[in-house]
Design a protein that fits this description.
- By secondary structure, this protein is mainly α.
- The protein has a domain at about 105-280: Four Helix Bundle (Hemerythrin (Met), subunit A) (Up-down Bundle), CATH 1.20.120.450.
- It is about 40% helix and about 5% strand.
- The chain contains six helices and four strands.
- The strands form two sheets. It has a two-stranded antiparallel ribbon. Strands 3-4 form a two-stranded antiparallel sheet.
- A hairpin with a 2-residue loop joins strand 3 and strand 4.
- It is globular.
Length: about 280
């Protein structure tokens, strides 16, 4: 799923979020049955130790006087404009953003607003992914296809990024009717106007095929950025996931960058976990 861009946020219907028109997930199947509504409930003297919350709405939840040591929160929407997360009265969102940019040099360029900055941003993410893939293929055989916590493997992540590029560059910016590579991997929930899942291969492609598709889509972005102008960045386009919400070419490109960096973060996190598991098993 997709993280959507800030420029179009003002077009959203009241009470909706970018998660409703294509937010970014980690490749886990979502439960589409009607969830139990616990909105507004108070839980006192309960234990939720070792619970997992997947695809849940925990917005505006208040946790006070409770043990939270060891809690892990992963939300790509946390860094959207205006979001905040208070820990003991301190808004940690700016701290998280700064730390992620420290860990991943070049990430801070994802918010560039001019053509030159976008080109630099794309160069940075391509360089970063190249190093991560070098690491992945040097690890034990099967690493690129190994999922962690039932989320996408590295190979599946690359396939998803092929689909993301096709959606936001091929369909949105270039306005192609059928921009999708068959090796792409669609969102798990498939709840989108952007594509019919039948355009994607039902057979899992080889990693060689995935790398070829990925390289082709990276080149497509690079070539587009090489010639884009400031005037073209301001042109309006349809949001592929919700055509009633217009985007700019700039916002579409920044969505691609958000996708790249967030999924890279997931990939690095999972490679770290796989490396640790391998080291303890030998």
């Amino acid at each position: 799923m997709y993280v959507a861009e800030r420029d179009g946020a003002q077009s959203l219907a009241p009470g909706s979020s970018w998660r409703d028109v294509g937010g970014l997930c980690q490749g886990r199947s979502m439960n589409k049955s009607q969830p139990e509504n616990l909105r507004g409930r108070t839980f006192q003297s309960r234990t939720l130790r070792e619970s997992r919350f997947i695809g849940c709405d925990l917005g505006d939840v208040v946790v006070r006087g409770s043990e939270v040591a060891g809690m892990e929160i992963d939300s790509p929407w946390l860094l959207e404009g205006g979001s905040r997360l208070l820990v003991n009265g301190v808004d940690v969102v700016p701290l998280v953003d700064a730390e992620l940019s420290r860990r991943f040099p070049g990430r801070e360029l994802r918010g560039s607003e001019d053509a030159e900055g976008l080109r630099a941003a794309w160069t940075a993410i391509e360089r970063t992914w190249a190093a991560t893939l070098d690491r992945a293929v040097a690890m034990p055989p099967g690493t690129v296809d190994a999922p962690v916590d039932d989320e996408w493997s590295v190979a599946q992540t690359l396939r998803h990024l092929v689909m993301a590029t096709d959606t936001w560059l091929g369909k949105a910016i270039l306005e192609r009717d059928q921009p999708y590579h068959r090796a792409g991997l669609p969102n798990d929930d498939n709840d989108t106007e952007a594509y019919d899942v039948s355009v994607f291969s039902a057979v899992t492609p080889s990693f060689v095929e995935v790398l070829a598709a990925r390289a082709d889509r990276q080149t497509m972005v690079r070539d587009f950025l090489a010639g884009v102008t400031s005037q073209e960045l301001a042109v309006r386009r349809k949001n592929p996931h919700a055509t009633q919400h217009p985007e700019t070419v700039l916002s579409c490109l920044r969505t691609i960058l958000e996708e790249e960096w967030e999924h890279h973060r997931y990939a690095v996190r999972d490679l770290d976990a796989l490396a640790e598991a391998h080291s303890t098993s030998v």
